[in-house]
TrEMBL record:
Entry-linked PANTHER family: ATP SYNTHASE SUBUNIT B, CHLOROPLASTIC
Positions of transmembrane segments: 32-49
Organism: Ottelia acuminata var. acuminata
Residue ranges of coiled coil: 64-98
Subunit record text: F-type ATPases have 2 components, F(1) - the catalytic core - and F(0) - the membrane proton channel. F(1) has five subunits: alpha(3), beta(3), gamma(1), delta(1), epsilon(1). F(0) has four main subunits: a(1), b(1), b'(1) and c(10-14). The alpha and beta chains form an alternating ring which encloses part of the gamma chain. F(1) is attached to F(0) by a central stalk formed by the gamma and epsilon chains, while a peripheral stalk is formed by the delta, b and b' chains.
Chief location bin: membrane
Protein name: ATP synthase subunit b, chloroplastic
Membrane topology: Single-pass membrane protein
Lineage: Eukaryota, Viridiplantae, Streptophyta, Embryophyta, Tracheophyta
GO cellular component: chloroplast thylakoid membrane; proton-transporting ATP synthase complex
Family assignment from sequence similarity: Belongs to the ATPase B chain family.
GO molecular function list: proton-transporting ATP synthase activity, rotational mechanism
Length: 184
């Protein structure tokens, strides 16, 4: 052990030499000491190093397995999301098509309802016009009849004397009496 410590102690002290070269003195360079130390480290450190490497290997494999599981889970979730997306897109297309057809149906129904309303209004307008025309015609007839009656009465009053008046009344009474006998 003294050699090992001496070699380390002597590392701090360098002889000043004028040139660079290899030292061929085996005992001065300590290759035997270094090989013994390396042999001891390898022999006793091999188990520890193996355990460390095995632990590291297991952690890496565990991480890889976890990553694979996460990857599979992510792929499944992606597929589910894609399926949901397709389903939603299909439903959206159906709603869009149904919406357009519903709009078209409502448009046709509105046009038909408006057409029916316009037709009813047109019929009502025509009935109102016919009624007003008939009323105007009746008013004109009544006025013409009234004027004709007033003119006839005026003519009769001026042309009729009491005897002619009496004969007309008697003739009308006779006609009424004949009509009464026919109905009985």
């Amino acid at each position: 052990m003294k050699n090992v410590t001496d070699s380390f102690v002597s590392l701090g002290h360098w002889p000043s030499a004028g040139s660079f070269g290899f030292n061929t003195d085996i005992l001065a360079t300590n290759p035997i000491n270094l090989s013994v130390v390396l042999g001891v480290l390898i022999y006793f450190g091999k188990g520890v190093l193996t355990d460390l490497l095995d632990n590291r290997k297991q952690r890496i494999l565990s991480t890889i397995r976890n990553s694979e599981e996460l990857r599979r889970s992510a792929i499944e979730q992606l597929e589910k999301a894609r399926d949901r997306l397709r389903k939603v897109e299909t439903e959206a297309d159906e709603y869009r098509v149904n919406g357009y057809s519903e709009i078209e149906r409502e448009k046709v129904n509105l046009i038909n309802a408006t057409s029916d309303s316009l037709e009813r209004l047109e019929n009502y307008k025509n009935e109102t016009l016919r009624f007003e025309q008939q009323r105007a015609i009746n008013q004109v007839r009544q006025q013409v009849f009234q004027q004709a009656l007033e003119g006839a009465l005026g003519t009769l009053n001026t042309c009729l004397n009491s005897e002619l008046h009496f004969r007309t009344i008697s003739a009308n009474i006779g006609i009424l009496g004949t009509m009464e006998e026919i109905t009985n």
